[in-house]
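TASK: fixed-backbone design
INPUT:
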């Protein structure tokens, strides 16, 4: 049975991240182990807004990349057999071809469209595009690995 959406409660069961570093709010349009869209509510009171930048707040690009990574980790963790994923974590390994095309201004929904390009054992490669209201804000490719929790 395919699930089309997972909420923040389920995401918390899949990822070790917690506020303020848990960035994604839900996963929609899920094709298990293949693709999904993560939604992040970029808020005016986000922890980074006060200092980046006080008179013209912008979501830092590194947090967009982190949100891509969290979305991919949640997609992968959700699609793997729960017995295989028990006591595992997904770690970001590399970031390639990151492009920040437009600033993400708080008080919007950032949609992170991600796709698993390939996997080899515990190593996965992904690509993604971040959009606000259909406008492309950023894109990147990245790799991640599944490791044992210590």
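OUTPUT:
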């Amino acid at each position: 049975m395919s699930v089309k959406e997972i909420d923040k409660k389920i995401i918390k069961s899949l990822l070790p991240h917690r506020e303020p570093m848990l960035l994604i709010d839900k996963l929609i349009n899920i094709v298990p182990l293949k693709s999904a869209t993560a939604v992040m509510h970029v808020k005016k009171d986000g922890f980074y807004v006060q200092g980046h930048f006080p008179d013209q707040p912008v979501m830092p690009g590194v947090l967009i990349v982190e949100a891509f990574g969290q979305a991919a980790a949640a997609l992968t963790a959700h699609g793997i057999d729960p017995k295989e994923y028990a006591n595992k974590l997904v770690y970001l390994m590399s970031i390639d071809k990151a492009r920040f095309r437009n600033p993400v201004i708080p008080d919007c929904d950032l949609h992170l469209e991600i796709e698993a390009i390939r996997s080899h054992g515990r190593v996965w490669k992904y690509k993604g595009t971040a959009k606000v209201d259909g406008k492309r804000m950023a894109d990147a490719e990245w790799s991640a690995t599944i490791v044992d929790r210590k």
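COMMENT: The first strand starts at residue 5 and ends at 6.
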